[in-house]
Amino acid sequence: MTDKRIVVTGGAGFLGSHLVELLRERGCAQVFVPLVEDYDLTQPAAIDRLFREQRPQVLMHAAALVGGIGANRLHPGRFFYQNALMGIQVIEAARVHGVAKTVVLGTICAYPKFTPVPFREDDLWNGYPEETNAAYGIAKKALLVQCQAYRQEYGTNAIFLLPVNLYGPRDNFDPETSHVIPALIRKFVEARRGGLRQVTLWGDGSATREFLYVKDAAEGILLATERYDKPEPVNLGTGQEISIRDLAAKIAAFTGYDGEILWDTSKPSGQPRRCLDVTRAEREFGFRARTSLDAGLRATISWYLSAPPL
Q1: What Å distances lie between residue 126 and 112, 119, 163, 234, 309, CA to CA?
Q2: For residue range 102-125, what is the model confidence (pLDDT) as tens digits?
Q3: How far apart, in whole angstroms, are the C-alpha atoms of residue 67 and residue 208?
Q4: Distance (Å, rounded) from C-alpha 209 to C-alpha 118?
């Protein structure tokens, strides 16, 4: 990888920035990050210009429009359109321009709502995704079909990875669009600072989630890029789940909030359970997450407390 020309779409974002950082730490000197103001990935002309100018040998497609349950409920059309359009056009450009290796990042939201736990890659098509993020999940899942179809017809070396919920330093802490861990961290920190004795959270807290520290995710993506060349999708995660109720209690303790936690059951909880079978990633390219949830949460909280105010 060190002598390859690498383009990382979304490389200025949360996951992408950690991926770019890791690539450069490993000696990759030709890593290019297309910024949206220079290359709008919903526009074919901009994508063609990107590929002609940079001539990538490796493409990592991490660009995505993402958000939590609230954002997905408010903007399902936007989430479907932008994610499908960006991905379809970028993968097509990689084919046209003869990119040697294309790595496409999917989402855990692509799995059916009632997938048996742990989620196995072979269960991906056995039902419809959870309704609050189905548009996003299906847009991303369509890119898996494209990667497999292009491999079959054109011999395109494209792989598809399914990262579980990510968290870590540089996450999105905007209360309107953030995912659960940064949202909880911000809520509890602000409640402690404001002297609030109660914090209200969505749902009933019974839903479970699995979380992967972003630096571990970057490591898994890099390993897959170097070692994996098959059409089957691969989960990236820890294989461990925690209820939102227990997660909230843990984050409250780590942020020093000792007030009451209330649950608004009129709000959706999302998919009932999420926990991945991660054996394929370990078998195929030797990936195993190394950061415990407690260590990752403490590092994320520490970063948030030291970051400039939003």
Answers
A1: 6, 11, 19, 16, 44
A2: 999 999 999 999 999 999 999 999
A3: 18
A4: 11
Rama region for 170: left / alpha / beta (φ>0; ψ in -120 to 50; rest): left
**48 belongs to a structural domain:** yes
Domain that holds residue 65: 6-171+210-240+274-291
* 176 occurs within a structural domain: no
Residue 27 lies in a domain: yes
Does 136 participate in catalysis according to the annotation? yes
User: Angle CA(172)–CA(285)–CA(234) in degrees, nearest 5?
Assistant: 55
> What does pTM read for this prediction?
0.94
For the ranges 63-67, 70-74, 115-119, 151-155, which has the lowest average pLDDT? 70-74
Of 39, 136, 150, 228, the catalytic one is 136
In a domain, 200, yes or no: no
Q: Please report where in the chains the tokens 């807290």 appear, as a residue.
A: 205
Whole-number Å distance between alpha carbons of 6 and 219: 16
Count of domains forming the chain: 1
Q: Which two tokens stand for residue 28?
A: 């990759």
* Nearest CA-CA partner of 39 in 14, 23, 61, 17: 61
| 41: three-class secondary structure by DSSP | coil
The pairing of beta strand 242-243 with beta strand 208-209: antiparallel
Q: Which amino acid is at 209?
A: R
CATH code of the domain in which 128 resides: 3.40.50.720
- Taking only Cα atoms into account, the Rg of the chain, rounded to an integer number of angstroms, comes to 19
Cβ pair 228, 159 in contact under 8 A: yes
48 exposure class (CB count in 10 Å sphere: 0-12, 13-18, 19+): middle
> Would you give the end-to-end CA distance of the chain in angstroms?
36
